[in-house]
């Protein structure tokens, strides 16, 4: 079970997460805007780091590993949105990940209760079924499915690693800020290697979206990491993926992506799964 205050904050995180994914999908240059988002998060973190304690030494190996996993996540995210709609790719990535987390969570000492498992399965089905139907109707290129599934594995990996790391760190805020401070420069290096000085020109021109995205991604993941110190990793991971409802709405309303009855039915299953996790 997850308490109501924690659940509400995770739902807020879900809305924030879907919002910054919308910014990336709607971007005229996803690589450079992702680099700007990462650099903005790093600069915000640098300003806040003097006010938090250092993470405990036990968490540092986990922090070191997750930096590279997050860099891989952002690169795969760019390729996913190059080939697929937000309302198709986002559900596949976010809906598959909590199921994978539940499968490996016992290795991290987590207990999967029948109620939690039922909620995770409902959320997974509610999220992925409409997306797979869209794929079968040729609504997305096969490459988009491939990248989305790869990213689901990456998401599951950093969820488990960060869940363990943040619990060992002694401070969710410190762990979050160091993560965002460090991983940005790998993303920036990749963008610079591919695009050179165009990176700086783009950052000067689109600093406002970069700053907005930075606040959303930093706040969203910071809430999730804090929640993992208060509740089970699989429960938080699954509840966070209710963000797919917000992503589908943003895709339909702002990107003119089609929203049919299957996506509405999927949203109902997601809501039911979230209720089972909260009260089951």
Which helices and strands appear, and what pairs or packs with what?
Layout: H1 4-25, H2 30-48, H3 60-83, H4 86-104, H5 114-136, H6 142-169, H7 172-195, H8 198-205, H9 207-228, H10 233-240, H11 243-254, H12 261-279
Helix pairs in contact: 1-9, 1-11, 2-7, 2-8, 2-9, 3-6, 3-7, 4-5, 4-6, 4-10, 4-11, 5-10, 5-12, 6-7, 7-9
Question: Quick gist of this model?
Answer:
This protein is mainly α and 280 residues long.
Oligomer: single chain
N/C terminus separation: 7 Å
Shape: globular
Number of strands: 0
What string gives the helices and strands in order? HHHHHHHHHHHH
Structural classification:
mainly alpha
Structural summary, described in words:
The protein is mostly helical. It has one domain (about 5-280). The chain has twelve helices and no strands. Helix 1 packs parallel to helix 11 (about 245-255), helix 3 crosses helix 7 (about 170-195) and helix 4 runs antiparallel to helix 5 (about 115-135). The longest helix has 28 residues, at about 140-170. The termini are close together.
Features:
280 residues; mainly alpha; globular
């Amino acid at each position: 079970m997850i308490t109501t205050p924690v659940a509400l904050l995770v739902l807020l995180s879900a809305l924030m997460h879907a919002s910054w994914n919308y910014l990336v999908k709607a971007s005229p240059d996803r690589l450079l805007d992702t680099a700007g988002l990462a650099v903005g998060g790093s600069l915000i973190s640098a300003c806040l780091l003097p006010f938090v304690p250092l993470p405990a030494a036990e968490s540092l190996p986990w922090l070191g590993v997750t930096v590279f996993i997050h860099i891989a996540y952002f690169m795969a995210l760019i390729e996913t949105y190059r080939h697929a709609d937000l309302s198709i790719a986002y559900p596949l990535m976010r809906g598959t990940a909590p199921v994978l987390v539940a499968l490996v969570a016992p290795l991290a000492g987590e207990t999967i209760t029948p109620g939690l498992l039922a909620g995770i399965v409902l959320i997974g089905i509610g999220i992925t079924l409409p997306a797979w139907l869209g794929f079968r109707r040729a609504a997305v290129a096969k490459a988009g499915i491939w990248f989305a599934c790869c990213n689901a594995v990456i998401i599951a990996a950093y969820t488990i690693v960060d869940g363990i790391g943040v619990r060992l760190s002694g401070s969710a805020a410190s762990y979050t800020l160091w993560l965002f401070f460090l991983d940005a420069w790998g993303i920036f290096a990749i963008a610079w290697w591919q695009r050179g000085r165009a990176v700086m020109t783009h950052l000067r021109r689109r600093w406002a979206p970069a700053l907005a995205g930075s606040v959303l991604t930093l706040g969203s993941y910071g809430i999730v990491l804090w929640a993992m110190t208060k509740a089970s990793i699989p429960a938080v991971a699954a509840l966070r993926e209710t963000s797919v409802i917000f992503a589908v709405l943003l895709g339909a309303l702002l990107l003119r992506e089609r929203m049919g009855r299957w996506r509405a039915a999927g949203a109902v299953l997601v809501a039911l799964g979230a209720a089972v996790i909260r009260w089951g």
